Each structure stands twice: as C-alpha cells, then as structure tokens.
Amino acid sequence: MAEVKIKNISKRFSPNSPLAVNNLNLDIADGEFLVLLGPSGCGKTTTLRCVAGLETQTAGDIYIGDRLVNGLPVGERDIAFVFQFYALYPHLSAYDNIAFPLRAQKLQKDEVDKRVQQVAKQLRIENILNRRPSSLPSGEQQRIALGRAIIRRPQVFLMDEPLTNLDAALRTDMRVELKLLQENLATTMVYVTHDQIEAMSMADRIAVMDQGVLQQVNTPLEIYNHPSTLFVAGFIGTPPMNLIDCHLNGSNTLSDEKGDFKLSGSLIEKLKSKIQDPEKPLIVGVRSEDVFIDTADGPSEVRGEIVARESLGDETIYAVEIGEYIIRVKTDPTLVLNTGTNVGLNFARDRIHIFDAKSKEAIKL
What we know:
This protein is of the alpha+beta class. The protein has 2 domains: 4-234, P-loop containing nucleotide triphosphate hydrolases (Rossmann fold), CATH 3.40.50; 240-363, CATH 2.40.50.140. It has helices at 44-52, 94-104, 109-123, 138-150, 168-185, 196-202, 220-225, 230-235, 266-274; strands spanning 4-11, 21-28, 33-37, 59-64, 67-68, 79-82, 156-160, 188-193, 205-210, 213-218, 242-248, 254-255, 262-263, 282-286, 291-294, 302-311, 316-322, 325-331, 342-347, 353-356, 362-363. Helix 5 links the parallel strand 7 and strand 8 (188-193). It is elongated, with a radius of gyration of 25 Å. The chain starts with a strand and ends with a strand. The mean pLDDT is 90.
C-alpha cells in the first residue's frame, strides 16, 4: 500500500473560470481512511479525479508512494476507482465483472478463479456470481463494483460517493462493511462524500473543503469539537451549530446588536485578551447539545419563546426564538414543552466557540 501526497495543486477548467481546487496541500498516510467532505461544487471530486489521473491539475504535484504521478495515465497509477454509478458491464455476470481486471492482465485461469472466489467470500456474494448486474438490487451491484476494485490489489482505493444511490438502511449497513473492509485490507482509501454522517462514522481523518479551499483536516471528533472556521462549524453537526452575530461592549458583555443575546463572565475576560478592537464583529457558536432549557422563572443567560418542537424518539429538538435568532436545543425526550412557552437558556461555557466575523476563523480562547 502507499501514502498519497498532494502538494500545492490547483485546478482551473478554463482560463477564465474560477479555481475548482485552490492550492490544496494534503498528506494521506499509508493505510489511512481519509474522507474529502463538502457541499456540491467544493472541489472534492475534482481533487479525487486529479489523484486518479482522470483530470490533470493546472498546478502542483501528486505523489502515490514515492512516485510523482503527474502526467501518468490512469492505468499506471496503481489505483482502483469506485464511482457513484457502478459502471458494471451489463452483459457480463458478476463473476466476469470481478474477474475483468485480472483477465486484462492475462493472469492464469486458476489464479483468476482463486482470487474471484476469495473476494466474493469477503463481500458475501458467492451466491450471485453467475447472475448479471441488471437482475440484482443496488446493494449487490455495489458489492460487485467493490469486488472488481479489490481484486486488483491496488496501492490506493479512490471512492466517489459510492453509497449515494442506496436506500437509507442499506447505506448504514454498507458504511460498517466498507470500514471493516478497509481495515481488513489495511489499504489507503480516499473517499468523497457530501454526507457528514458517512464522514464522521467512517473516517480516520476528514478533510473539509469549500469553494476549492481546504478548510480543516483532522479526526472527526476534533473537527466536531474544535471547528477552525465558520464554514466547518456550520457544516458539521445535526442540527447545525447555532450562530449569533455579536460584539464586545463597554459593560463587559458579549451581545448582539439589539441586546437580546448577552454573555458575561470569565469568557469575556479571555476574549478581551485576544482581540484589540472592542467593536470587532464576532460570531458566537454553540451546539444544540450545549444549550440547556430552564423552565423556571429565575435568572438565565437569555430568555426566549419555543416556536417549534421536533420529536425524534431518542431526543427532542426545540427551536427557541430569541429576538431575530432561532436557537436549536437538543434535549432528552422526557422533557415535553409546548410551543409558545417562555423559557430560559443557559450555555456550557467551556463549549462556546467564538469566530472572527471577517476572517471567518475561530478565535482560540
């Protein structure tokens, strides 16, 4: 297997078009499961296609192992690509689809059969090897596509949203199977998705991209708990992080323009030591599980009115209106409150995030 190094790559599809990938640097370790995550158009698939050789970067270098692969055709890069659309040969059986790469290498028939049977057992598709893809459900077709990739024993697997066309229950099963497969093969895998649940549940590390720019790369928990940019804070998490425009003021509080939202205390002292301009526009971020509803009439950090309730079985999400803002609060399902109820909200102070409204970067306290 091999590491993958992406050094200063940029990609522009035409001279006057914006950069699809903008000066990306990324080191992917040997045997790592790295997920490229971001919304449509963020540059993640373009990056993957550049690594595969399906696109040529405008600038920068790509290494697979110790080889510089700039200019090398796809067939010489020793990679396997699994697409969103399975790209199976409809006139061939599952067996022949999986065997195709080995036959192209002119391996002996006995060796081909041995390896097909091994892969089929690994993917639990021994009973469908004689059937054609068109007669099989999407989950089985995806396993065949995986089998065709695995059988080559490449240095790197590249996967472009391979679970998108599966139904929700099957996606959940396949996430577990893909992760186990990658660990068993001990291979390097670069996986593209826009689905944060896939990224959080499968990745060793996540590389979050937006508008061609790498926003943050780290472990799933580190990205969730310590987003380094405003984009990452809003993109990762369900529901998204609550974000409120605010600034410091003369009364040693952090508040929004209309004074509906106010914070004070040691957090403010830490913040004042980090910024010079008290009028600097800031954004407060707090996740829904770090906001707590207080139904008593006593003092709370802010007060608001419940405007919506989402009961999800294992949890309930309340939408609380505070001035111009809607704050979402994740609670235990045993807490049942009606819309229109006036409640207090308190925040886990050690879990509050502050962002520079101009640079969109986190301010570390």
